[in-house]
User: Which sequence fits this backbone?
């Protein structure tokens, strides 16, 4: 018998977030310390692929219990739509952040020798990248837009009733591919946090426990990967509900024929 209790849901959100951020920040650590392939052996593509498959693994683990929010922006979107009550949603967000903190600890322990030998390198949280005109507007817009696309695409991917969602149990893989696309196309300016727990949790851990991480909360940038996703996520869900879903066929309607089908049926 399945025991889908609130405790089980909170555990799934905590542990799923741990797996997500452990694998994601783990690939960043490989990039930063380049321990296996040497300097230049890893690049931005490595990071985007690592984060994409981190999402796939985490969603497969937690998806059957909660749908695998693993992201306060996704949970906030569900609260705004009314598909989860606010109290439960806020508890999800708390355990997601705790999962981010614990994953920071795991990454720190895994690469502790590198931190001691080579000094502190930021593998825990996002930051503006050199080479971009990182105006405050650009930073917030990057996180809002990236999270908007994330949540909009998630709602499309999981909509097997009306939309053309993937068959069988491939939806977690497709969510990972959405994250890959966002990272490759939109992730440059800020590092595409698109998830407050993924950024704030490890950032808090680093600021408290990792030597050399001074300045983690200097300035107001740390608010960007919190506020931006919490705006973009609900906007993406509402966009799907009001500007995509109403134009899809109802569940009991036949699917429209492909374009040109009327021509094909014309008599010779």
Assistant:
């Amino acid at each position: 018998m399945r025991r889908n209790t609130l405790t089980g849901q909170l555990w799934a959100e905590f542990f799923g977030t741990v797996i997500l951020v452990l694998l994601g920040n783990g690939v960043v650590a490989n990039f930063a310390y380049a321990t296996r392939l040497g300097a230049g052996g890893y690049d931005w593509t490595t990071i985007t692929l690592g984060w994409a498959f981190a999402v796939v693994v985490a969603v497969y683990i937690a998806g059957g219990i909660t749908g695998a929010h693993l992201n306060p922006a996704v949970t906030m979107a569900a609260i705004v739509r009314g598909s989860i009550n606010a109290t439960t949603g806020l508890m999800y967000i708390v355990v997601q952040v705790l999962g981010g903190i614990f994953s920071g600890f795991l990454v720190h322990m895994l690469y502790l020798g590198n931190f001691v030998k080579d000094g502190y390198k930021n593998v825990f949280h996002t930051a503006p990248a050199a080479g971009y005109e990182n105006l405050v507007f650009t930073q917030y817009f990057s996180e809002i837009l990236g999270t908007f696309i994330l949540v909009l695409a998630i709602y499309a991917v999981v909509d097997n009733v009306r939309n053309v969602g993937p068959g069988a149990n491939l939806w977690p893989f497709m969510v990972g591919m959405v994250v890959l696309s966002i990272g490759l196309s939109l992730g440059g300016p800020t590092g595409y946090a698109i998830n407050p727990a993924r950024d704030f949790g490890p950032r808090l851990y680093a600021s408290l426990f990792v030597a050399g991480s001074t300045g983690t909360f200097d300035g107001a940038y740390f608010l960007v990967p919190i506020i931006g996703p919490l705006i973009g996520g609900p906007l993406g869900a509402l966009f799907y509900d009001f500007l995509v879903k109403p134009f899809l066929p109802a569940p009991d309607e036949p699917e429209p024929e492909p374009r040109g089908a009327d021509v094909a049926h014309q008599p010779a």
Notes: The mean pLDDT is 91. The two ends are 60 Å apart (CA to CA).
